[in-house]
Design brief:
Two copies of one chain form a homodimer. By secondary structure, the first copy, chain A, is an alpha/beta fold. Chain A folds into three domains: about 170 residues, Carbamate kinase, CATH 3.40.1160; about 80 residues, 2-Layer Sandwich (Alpha-Beta Plaits), CATH 3.30.70.260; about 60 residues, 2-Layer Sandwich (VC0802-like). In chain A, about 35% of the residues lie in helices and about 25% in strands. In chain A, the strands form five sheets. In chain A, strands 3-6-2-1-9-11-12-10 form an eight-stranded mixed β-sheet, with helices on both faces. The first copy, chain A, has a four-stranded antiparallel β-sheet with strand order 13-18-20-19, with helices on both faces. Chain A is globular and about 75 Å long. The two termini of chain A are about 45 Å apart. The model of chain A has no long low-confidence stretch (mean pLDDT about 90). Chains A and B meet through helix 1, helix 2, helix 3 and strand 3 of A and helix 1, helix 2, helix 3 and strand 3 of B.
């Protein structure tokens, strides 16, 4: 029998009525002949409430104890799920991360999964039970409870799907799937039927925020078909999978705009080996997360080094760079906090020329100035004025027909 | 270094302020040179709330899943405790019942402890940490979470104290200790300095409700000195221990009154071997808990069988007995739901005559009629009219000087 993993997020299990609705969906899958494993998050705002309880006692609580505390939210959900399924006539059994020996490294609050013992789960599935597993948690070799970080239940679900060689891992959420862009900005955005792991990784890191990046990496590594879909209806969502031939016909799959960021240009840095390393090791020490880096030579001795950071990190980034002025010798800093980053993503870029051409042409036509450009194999990003962000996204979405299902778009060259 | 186990009940850890106050007490014990192990219950009404959440989904939830669900309350308390201790500068580590391998039988919702692995606890204590253990829970050989029933945290604490050979197990509660009788009824009741396991077992089963009976049995079996005391002050409470010589000088240690009960007299039962067994096996099948049983021969062929039950069990008890009328041949039932049971308890009864004499004399003087009498080695109980319950308790307390500390009482003969 094929195994199906279903993951329900906190909003999908927030109260008794929603748990019952989720159970009905689980039962439908069981009736369709699947062995079903459910992974669930803590109910509603429970995790935030527990964090508040802890912070009231200690502004800087030890991470081991926070993991022990926060893991209880997911355990409550899965036992309540089993209790509800039992009332609906189905035999179900819930497990903590420790009970299925989801072994992680010992890094509390952001542990990484090392292995899962599928024996107990498989035994229960084979005896006809629905299995529920508390998401977000595992245990270290030392048997301490560890958690996987925010959004970690996605990773739990994909990892369990990988370990059980599940047919699919369904991620139930309150949106219909992954959209070509943010529908709040570009109303004509359409849901994608499928997207590759690489594309969604680029989109996730660019702020599309659909799924936890680590869960996608896991899915890619272990070849898990991930289906992001709505817990409110029966519509198919978006399948996240390996690159398939038909994806190649599409130049650009999605576009994003990220606004909460700033850019620091370090002007006329001494262009000596090791200077870039000095700058970025100082930023790392200051715990600044650097997004994109651009370096350009301006003469044989001098270069400009630019990088973008989240707005919240700007003060510490500025301070860190100022501290090393006498070490790396630069003329001045040029800081912009009025920028946005527009990105287009698509595996089709690998095989199609003309993406940059069409992108820059569309922006020029709309009179949108480009501050700087960075690219990866399947992504082009432009720094633009924040004021023009919405207009730029709309322009680009129309240029790449992101308002149409893929089969209605003009064929790429 | 001597180990001290401290157990805090739900009201003693209901909010951040109370947790901090309990932590201060833990720290004081650590400063006094003890290795401290804390066992805690779920905060405030958490367990009741989780039960309500479950019942909303299923009026008859499976016990394995209830155990998984309810165990989270205690885990939250101990991790918060560790978080608070850390803020106060003390290194602490919390454990679930599973993490310290508190192995129980597999009887969900009322499991019995079989063994505890003290290695991990002792290792942490020896490294200078304060150890916190979630009460009320263990795990079966199968690694399922099991709970010990209401009041089970007392049992967890005493069992851990036994396993670690602790100097003492302190049970913190919202009363000052164990009283000679219920101070709400007899205002002059005094706190006992000490009481034997046997006496408190009789008092607990008679409804004094100070501590979980199973925890006392555990303490008796493994010789754990239990100290019941208030979490609101520093006063010494009541020590529960083995019988010591000075206890023998006291005829009666405590008195109780139990009102929520009823009595069924089965009149003129055929006095044949096996008839009593039939009656009580039928009652057991009907899940009726029978308190006291009295059988008296009324002729060579006939006997009266009487028993008391909790008021809530009366309808099913009546039905069960009526069902077997044709099997055991009796004339009629006589049911009283207007009774109360007055009991006096004391290990001194073993060596002193005259307890019954003084008890019945005092009741006669106060014109209190006795319906029936049952006794154990250290207890005498009388069924009386419920209307006279308070007056009877007061009469008896004065007769046995339960309003005075033991050293101020007249010496027993």
């Amino acid at each position: 029998m094929a195994v199906l993993v279903q993951k329900y997020g906190g909003t999908s299990v927030a109260n008794a009525e929603k748990i019952r609705r989720a159970c009905q969906r689980v039962i439908n899958a069981a009736k369709a002949g699947y062995q079903v494993v459910v992974v669930a998050s803590a109910r509603g705002h429970q995790t935030d409430e527990l964090i508040a309880d802890a912070k009231e006692l200690n502004p800087d609580p030890p991470t081991r104890e926070m993991d022990q505390l926060l893991s209880t939210g997911e355990i409550q959900t899965v036992s309540l799920f089993a209790i509800a399924l039992s009332a609906m006539g189905y035999d179900a059994i819930s497990f903590t991360g420790s009970q299925i020996r989801m072994i992680t490294d010992g890094v509390h609050s952001k542990a990484r999964i090392k292995s899962i013992d599928t024996q107990r789960i498989q035994k229960e599935l084979d005896s006809g039970r629905i299995v529920l597993v508390a998401g977000f948690q595992g245990m270290s070799e030392n048997e301490d409870v560890t958690t996987l970080g925010r959004g970690g239940s996605d990773t739990s679900a994909v990892a369990i799907a990988a370990a059980l060689k599940a047919k699919e891992c369904e991620i139930y959420t309150d949106v219909d799937g992954v959209y070509t862009t943010d529908p709040r900005i570009f109303k004509q955005a359409v849901k994608m039927d499928q997207i590759s792991y690489d594309e969604i990784l680029e989109l996730a890191s660019l702020g599309a925020g659909v799924m936890h990046s680590r869960s996608i990496e896991f899915g890619k590594k272990y070849d898990v078909k991930i289906h992001v879909r709505s817990s409110l209806n029966e519509n198919p969502g978006t399948i996240i999978t390996h690159e398939v031939p038909q994806m190649e016909g599409i130049m650009v799959s999605g576009a994003t705009i990220q606004k909460d960021m700033a850019k620091i240009d370090i002007i006329n840095v001494d262009n000596k080996p090791g200077n870039a390393a000095k700058i970025f090791s100082h930023l790392a020490k200051a715990k600044v997360v650097v997004y994109d880096i651009i370096q350009t030579e301006v003469s044989t001795e001098k270069a400009n080094v630019s990088f973008t950071v989240g707005m919240a990190d700007l003060p510490s980034a500025k301070k860190a760079v100022e501290t090393i002025k006498d070490e790396v010798y630069y003329d001045k800093l040029f800081i912009r906090d009025d920028i946005a980053e527009l990105s287009v993503v698509g595996v089709g870029m690998r095989t199609h020329y003309g993406v940059a051409d069409r992108l820059f042409g569309a922006l020029a036509l709309a009179k949108i100035n480009i501050d700087s450009i960075t690219t990866s194999e399947i992504r082009i990003s432009c720094i633009i004025d924040k004021k023009q962000a919405e207009k730029a996204l709309e322009t680009v979405c129309l240029a790449f027909e992101l308002d149409k299902p893929t089969d209605q778009r003009k064929k790429a060259k």
